[in-house]
Amino acid sequence: MTLVSTMHPGSLSGTGVRPVREVHADLGAAALAGHALRRGEGALSEHGALVVATGAHTGRSVQDKFIVDEPESTGSVWWGKVNRKLSVEHFARSTDQVRGYLSGQELFTQDLYAGADPAHRIRVRLVTTHAWYALFARNMFIRPEPEALKDFEPDYVILHAPDLTIDPMSCGVRSSTVIALSFAQKLVVIAGTRYAGEIKKAIFTVMNWILPEKGVLPMHCSANRGRNGDVALFFGLSGTGKTTLSSDPDRPLIGDDEHGWSTAGVFNFEGGCYAKVIDLAEAAEPQIWSASHRFGTVLENVIADEYGRLDLANRSLTENTRACYPIDFIGEAQPDGRGRHPRHVVMLTADAFGVLPPVSRLTAEQAMEHFLAGYTARVAGTEAGLGRHPEATFSTCFGAPFLPRPPEIYGAMLQRLLQTHGATCWLVNTGWTGGAYGVGQRISLKHTRAILRAILADGLADAQFQHEPHFDLAIPNAVPDVPWSMLNPRHAWGDPNVYDEAARRLRALFVQEREGRRQTS
Length: 521
Fold this sequence. Notes:
Elements: E1 23-25, H1 29-38, E2 43-44, E3 50-52, E4 65-68, E5 84-86, H2 88-103, E6 107-114, E7 122-128, H3 131-140, H4 146-149, E8 156-161, H5 168-171, E9 178-182, E10 187-191, H6 197-210, E11 217-225, E12 231-235, H7 242-246, E13 253-255, E14 258-262, E15 265-268, E16 272-276, H8 286-292, E17 298-300, E18 303-304, E19 310-311, E20 322-326, E21 338-339, E22 342-349, E23 359-362, H9 364-373, E24 375-378, E25 391-394, H10 407-421, E26 424-429, E27 432-433, E28 441-442, H11 445-456, E29 465-468, E30 473-476, H12 484-487, H13 489-492, H14 496-520
Parallel strand pairs: 1-6, 3-17, 4-5, 4-9, 7-8, 8-10, 12-22, 22-26
Antiparallel strand pairs: 2-3, 6-7, 9-10, 11-12, 11-13, 11-14, 14-15, 15-21, 16-20, 17-20, 18-19, 23-26, 24-25, 27-28, 29-30
Helix pairs in contact: 1-3, 9-10
Family: Belongs to the phosphoenolpyruvate carboxykinase (ATP) family.
Pathway: Carbohydrate biosynthesis; gluconeogenesis
EC number: 4.1.1.49
C-alpha cells in the first residue's frame, strides 16, 4: 500500500508550529490506520480494529494536570488538588519545548467540533505526532462537513507530543509529563503521556469552563432517548454501569459520556464513545461488542495474539482497557446528538457496602446533594492497590477532575434545571445487597435493567413509597420483575441491626465528604 500525503501549512494556522516534515491534515479512518501500521504504532485485530498500547500511562495523570494562573481567569478557578496552578512563564516554557519538538516531526492534524448544538460548540484543532491519536480524536469528536473545513479556524488548539519528556525543573511541573490548559490563550499542551484519554478530557474541561457562563450545564453523563422522544440522563463513576445501561437497543444513544443541558434541551459534546472493554461479553453488551470488533475502532491496551484474536479478559497491561469508536458504530444512536429536556435523571452508584437501596427517588434538593457527592465504592479486583474491604469514593459532580469552577456552581444549575423542567431524579445502586462486598451479593444486571425499564416507562410514577431513615430516601414498595425483598436493603440483610450500623458508617462518610468539600470551595 502506497500512502501519498502533501504538506498542508494551513492546517497549522494558529498553532505556532513551523513544520519541516510532512503534515497529514484531516485524513479519514482508512488513511490514518494505514499510516499507523506503516509507522509501527499498532496492529490490526482479526476484525480490523487498530490495537495500540500506551506504555507506562494507562490512565489519566491526575497529578500532572495544570491550569495556567492568568489574570483573566484566576478568580473563577476552583484551585486545589484538582486544579493546580501553573505560572504564565512556566506554561510558556512548556509550550516552547512542545512546539519546538513538534516542528521537527511528521505530524497529523484534525479539525473537529466539540458540541452537537451549533449554538454552543467549539472548534478544536489537534496537532499530534501519531496517526492513531488523530484517529482517536476523529472518532471521539464531531467531524465537520468537508465544506466547513475550508475556512476552519480553531477556537482551541491541542498540541500533543506523547513521546516528549518535558524538563520539569525549567517548566515548573512535577514530572516529565504535563497536561496544561490556558483559558486565556485557548491552548492545551499535552506531553509525556501516551494515554489518549487526556485529549478528550482536556476538551471536556474546556467545556466545563465555557458553558456555565452561557447558562448551560456541562455534565459527565450518558444520555439516551425513548421512541417517543423522552430523554434520560445517566450519571455514574467508573464501574457503576453508566455506559452499559445507557446502551439500550430500545433507546437510541445520544452519547455515552459528556453532555450539555441548555434552554433547548440536551446535546452531546462528542461524536464517539470511549468504552471500557475489560471482560466485555457479547451476550451482556452486544452493541459495545460489535463496535469493538470493527475497522475504524481503536482498541487501547487490549491484548491480541499474532492472529489478531482479542483477549478481552487479559489484564496484563491494565484493567482500564478501552475501545474508541464513532457513535454511529452503535446500531441505535441519535444522529444529531441532541434531545429534549430529560424526563428522568438516573444517578448510578456501585455501593460495595450494601447499604443503599437498588432504587430510590430523590427530591431536587437531594439530587443536588448526591450530584455534589458523586459517590461509589471500589473493591479489590476492580482497582489496583485495594485490599479486601470496600473503599468509598467521592468525585463531586461525578467528574471532579474536569471541573475548573467550584462544584456548587454546577450543583445549583442542576437543581434549577430539574425544578424548571420537572425531571424526576433516581438513585440506582448497581452494587451489593444483603451485606457488604464479600458477604452480600452483587445486584444482577437483570434486576437493574428491570428497575430502569420501570423508571423510563413512567411505571413508578404512581407507585407507593416507603421511607428510608438513614439517607432520607423514598423506596418504591414494588418494582415489576424485582423481588420485594431486595428493595429495602435493611430487609435483605440477615441482621437489621448490623445493617443500621453499616448505614450509619456510610452516612458519616457522606458528611465527612461534604464538610471537606465546603472547606475547599
